[in-house]
Automatic annotation (TrEMBL):
Entry keyword Transferase: yes
Keywords carried by this UniProt record: Transferase
The protein, known as: Glutathione S-transferase
Domain GST N-terminal: 1-80
GO terms of molecular function: glutathione transferase activity
Signal peptide bounds: none
Native species: Labrys monachus
PANTHER family tied to this protein: GLUTATHIONE S-TRANSFERASE FAMILY PROTEIN (PTHR44051:SF21), GLUTATHIONE S-TRANSFERASE-RELATED (PTHR44051)
Transmembrane portions of the chain: none
C-alpha cells in the first residue's frame, strides 16, 4: 500500500489526486508543519530536503511531487492519466509537467516566501515578491494561451496528470493580483478538474472543503 506524507493542500495534493483517480489503496501520514515536523530527524530520513511530500511504495521512498506523479502514472498506465510512452503526446506531457513544477511552482514558492531569499532585508523582500508575481503571471498567461487554443485540458480533450498538478498550483496562486481563474480557459479547466469526485475526495481527506481553487 502507498503511504503519502502530507500536509493539507501542500505539494502532496497532486500525488494525492492521482492516487484517488487511480483508485490505488493508500494511507496518509500527516507531517505537522505547525510543529516543523518536516524538519524532524524522523522525517529527514524520508526526505532529506525537509519538504513535503514524500511517497513510500514498499521499499521505495520518493520525494519531489512531480517525480511521484511520474512514478504513479508509470505504475498505473491503465488509469489513462498520461499518454502512452514513446508517443509525441507523452513528450508534451513531460514538457507541461516540467514547466509546471520547474517554472510556475518555483515562482509561486518565491512569491509566498520571499524572506527566504531576502537575507533579512525587508525592502529586498518586496522586490523579490513583486518579481516572482510578475514571472508567475507571465507563466499563467502562457498556459491560458495554450489552453484557449488546444484545451480544454493541457493535452486536449482528456483530463490527465498535468491538469491535476496545475489545479494544485492554481490554489496557491489565488493571492496573485491576477489570479488564475480570471482567465477563461484556465477557469474552464479548473471547473472541470474540481468537479471530479476523486479530486474532491483527495482534498476532503486533507480537510479542505472550501472551494479548492
Ligand atoms: N519541489 C518540491 C517542493 C516541496 C515543497 O516546497 N513543499 C513545501 C510545502 S508545499 C514544504 O514542505 N515546505 C516546508 C518547508 O520548506 O519547510 C516538490 O515539488 O515536492
Amino acid at each position: 500500500m502507498y503511504r503519502l506524507h502530507y500536509y493539507p493542500a501542500n505539494a502532496n495534493a497532486a500525488p494525492h489526486m492521482l492516487l484517488e483517480e487511480i483508485g490505488a489503496p493508500h494511507e496518509l501520514a500527516l507531517v505537522d508543519r505547525t510543529v516543523e515536523a518536516q524538519k524532524s530527524q524522523a522525517y529527514l530520513r524520508i526526505n532529506p530536503n525537509g519538504r513535503i511530500p514524500a511517497l513510500e511504495d514498499d521499499g521505495l521512498v520518493l520525494f519531489e511531487a512531480a517525480a511521484i506523479v511520474l512514478h504513479l502514472v508509470d505504475r498505473h498506465p491503465e488509469a489513462g492519466l498520461a499518454p502512452a510512452q514513446g508517443t509525441p503526446e507523452r513528450s508534451k506531457f513531460y514538457q507541461w509537467l516540467v514547466f509546471l513544477t520547474n517554472s510556475l511552482q518555483e515562482e509561486l514558492m518565491v512569491f509566498q516566501y520571499p524572506e527566504r531569499l531576502a537575507g533579512g532585508d525587508g525592502s529586498a523582500e518586496a522586490v523579490i515578491r513583486n518579481g516572482a508575481e510578475q514571472r508567475a503571471t507571465a507563466f499563467l498567461d502562457i498556459i491560458e494561451t495554450h489552453l484557449a487554443g488546444n484545451g480544454p485540458f493541457f493535452l486536449g480533450d482528456a483530463v490527465g496528470a498535468a491538469d491535476l498538478y496545475f489545479a494544485m498550483l492554481a490554489r496557491w496562486a489565488r493571492p496573485l493580483a491576477k489570479p488564475p481563474r480570471s482567465r477563461p480557459a484556465i477557469a474552464r479547466l479548473l471547473d472541470a478538474v474540481t468537479a471530479r469526485p476523486a479530486v474532491r475526495r483527495a482534498y476532503a481527506a486533507e480537510g479542505i472543503c472550501e472551494p479548492i481553487c
